[in-house]
Amino acid sequence: MHYTPLSGRPDAPEYPPAGARIDYYLASPSSEVTLEILDAAGKVVRSYSSDARAAPTGGRGGGRRGGGLPSAMPTKTGMNRFVWDLRYPGGPATAGDGEGGGSGGGGPLVAPGSFKARLTAGGVMKTESFTVKIDPRVAKDGVTSADLAEQTKFALKVRDALAEARQLAQRVRQAIDARRGDPAKLQSVLERLTTKSGPYEDQMFIDQMSNVNREIGQADQKVGASAYERFNELMKEWAALKADADSALR
What we know:
Immunoglobulin-like, about 250 residues, two-stranded antiparallel ribbon, 2 domains, 4-stranded antiparallel β-sheet, alpha+beta
């Protein structure tokens, strides 16, 4: 099987994308095929559909095992393969506003553990179990499954904080455009949330939180104390931002 070199160089190594390969056979074409990934507690981690209108779910490039995998379930007669990128859903994409941290595709990687794939096609549901294991090279360096579970837990908090911040920035922009609320206060909140483009950018809340996201997402690792400290500082700032936004929107 041929894989396109990510670097664009013909002499670069070509590796298949990391993920859980799920093979299934369809005796006849199906109008819809759905796949749910469940964790050990039975909670749905990720959902996919053959419906092309479904939200894109391919993993983002770079960072821990970058993605770019298809997001729609194949429905052809015979054998089919779908690769789950081992990620939770991502947060909102950047929407062209120039701020970092958005991901219209995959979010944090799952931690090692037991999972189930639940496939539904033509009214028939099948469930199979599988295990996500720690990379032995990472384990050799002293990183444990517990470290990765904590990394994933923290990464989900950062993802959710970024999503909330983006939603607030959108609400504030809409209020300014519609001339609702206190325009001066709203503009102040927006300037604290988003970074102004220019030769000497002073990064604001969304970009600062995005930096934490990148720091903890670039490798399988035990998250350092500095990332937790920076996150806690930003969440204090976030509480003030929300309070000021609520006041300005009244």
